[in-house]
Amino acid sequence: MESVRGGAPVDKAVDFANYFCTYSYLYHQKDMLSDRVRMDAYHSAVFKNKRHFQGKTVLDVGTGSGILAIWSAQAGAKKVYAVEATNMARHARSLASANGVSHIVEVIEGSIEDVSIPEKVDVIISEWMGYFLVRESMFDSVIYARDRWLKPSGLMYPSHARMWFAPIKTKLVEQKNQEYQKSLADWSYFSQELNEAYGVDMSTLTMPYHEEQKKYYLQTSLWSNLYPGQVIGDPVVVKEIDCSNATLQDIAAVKSRFSFTLSGSDRLCGFAGWFDVHFRGNASNPADKEVELTTSPSDTDTTHWGQQVFLLQPPLVIEDGDVVQGSIEITRSKDNHRLMDVKITHELRSSGEQFYPATVCNFFIE
User: Fold this and answer.
1) 84, 109, 136, 174: which is the annotated catalytic residue?
2) Residue ranges of the chain with pLDDT lower than 70?
């Protein structure tokens, strides 16, 4: 979903409009259906573990185009409830019919929190992941569905998730700083022209404008598809989630410490975050074939999720073997619970003459 500048408190109706509107268009569904890594992982998870679906009742939370519901039916499910909050539901219903599974797949239009399902289910399948896993907060709805509709022995697809974090080098630092400086120069030229042409002094708004632009250009995380060579320290896991028992409290905030030994004499330009999910079944009913979906930096297997990049302004000069350590804290935005506030505290221990004290950087995942 495209990011927007700034944020404002939203009620449920506005949140529904802002969040779900994009997913009601086929062009956006096409982007996700064109993601080969995403599609291959879910397809393999279902069809290499048909035993989990054959003769079972399945709930697809946020079915979108209905692809996961259709696959579940093709894998042998006896009944699939496909819940979709937008009018994409009518396309999902049409697609299920065109693929000969409309007698199995029942598409229900509405949010999972508001609809009623006539029975408990054996499997919940959902593609709920957002940027850096937690953006969009859709896992809240999956937890709700699990607690209300999943049988005690039921399976979650995916079953586990992890959030990864790593130091990186990138040329995006200079690009975003140049864009920021240009935006300030544009304001200066604009306000001068307005004053000369219309006699209105805009200077009282200069500082708020600068703060707004700083947030957008320098503090908002960036979507990027990084290459492995841009990662300059071994990635660490900052959060693990067991989808079978995770609670809302478990995912409301992510707090973790990190320590990276940096490789190469270069620059520490920032940090990147990504995720992977696994389809393992559960302890009493493990998958016949465990499948992983990863959004890690790759030369070939890129995804529509990419990675979230948090740039340091300015970057830090490093030597091979330097250590950067600190902490990351991810919390939900007070203005919009689907967006995230990120605080990264970092300190560089250099083996050379450089010295960088502990620094706190605040970012926004929008």
Assistant:
1) 136
2) 1-24, 352-355
CA 338 to chain centre: 10
Among candidates 295, 227, 284, which has minimal Cα distance to 52?
284
189 three-state secondary structure? helix
> Is the CB of residue 167 less than 8 Å from the CB of residue 324?
yes
| Phi, psi dihedral angles at 155 (to 5 degrees) | -110, 145
Can you say whether residue 270 is alpha, beta or left, with left for phi > 0 and alpha for psi between -120 and 50 degrees? Answer: left
Entry field: residues in the chain: 366
User: Could you report the per-residue pLDDT of 9-66, keeping only the tens digit for each?
Assistant: 444 444 444 444 555 677 777 888 899 999 999 999 999 999 999 999 999 999 999 9
Of the residues 127, 179, 193, 240, only one is catalytic, namely 127
281 three-class SS: strand
CA 155 to chain centre: 23
The residues facing 133 across adjacent strands are: 130
Residue 290 annotated to the active site: no
Active site (annotated) includes residue 127:
yes
